[in-house]
Give the backbone structure.
Amino acid sequence: MEPQSTKPKLLDQLRDRIRLKHYSRRTEDVYLDWSKRYILYHKKRHPQEMGKREVEEFLTYLATERNVAASTQNQAKAALQFLYKEVLNIRLPWLGEVQQAKKPKRLPVVLTEKEVQTLLAHVPLGYGLLARLMYGTGMRLLEGLRLRVQDLDFGRAELMIREGKGAKDRVTMLPKSLIAPLQEHLKQVQQLHEQDLLKGHGEVWLSESVARKYPNAGREWIWQYLFPSGRLSVDPRSGVTRRHHLDEKALQRTIKQAAIDAGLTKNVTPHTLRHSFATHLLQAGYDIRTVQELLGHKDVQTTMIYTHVLNKGGLGVTSPLDRLV
């Protein structure tokens, strides 16, 4: 009788490789999900037996039949590239030839300053400070949730945003009107952390590189999340009980409900606060390069979309009807 193979299953190999590369839990879930979908689409054939034709067929199917967004197709493409390159040791240099999902040119939803004020007034207490900080700095949703205590610099009125989009750090201003509320908030967070330590917990998640370099940093005050969750949870990777940051979906639901309660007729999400931040800075006369830097955009063309929101240039004309009035 032949001995059973001890080689791990493909998805287990994929999971191990993702963790070895220190990718986030979110990326792990996404890459595993797309790899499963790819295999199921081809009736459970092993990816090793498939190649260019099958990958192209799957990605084209997503674009033409499923009508997925361009970002969704790119996500699936990245997952398959990782699977083939990192697990199967097969390169896919021809992926750029695959039919691309169309990326619609949509202007971002932007609130007026009065609408922002009304929205923030309807955000519940547990999320109000974070919502104001996101609007006041132009942070993305996860950038705000992942802030650590040490990222605040009250003396310089600055905020360090670490590993933003593209894994880049950047510095933005800290609204002076939020310094006192944040200092009071920190006292409450520190009390919560001290209670966790007394109960044998108090450790926060750190990247592999930081945890290896600073073995005890996970329990230190400066590394704690600025906006911690109200409950402890077990890390599914390590089994360690920790206090994570606030849940992103809960914040999304909260902002959406606040917009409804405020009577706003726009589709408001946490990202709307970022769009409004950029637009209001341009309205105030700030240079677009300054806004680009604060937002962390790689290309100024990305920031230029807010000039369209402002209706500058050829669109900034007065309607003939208004002349009659």
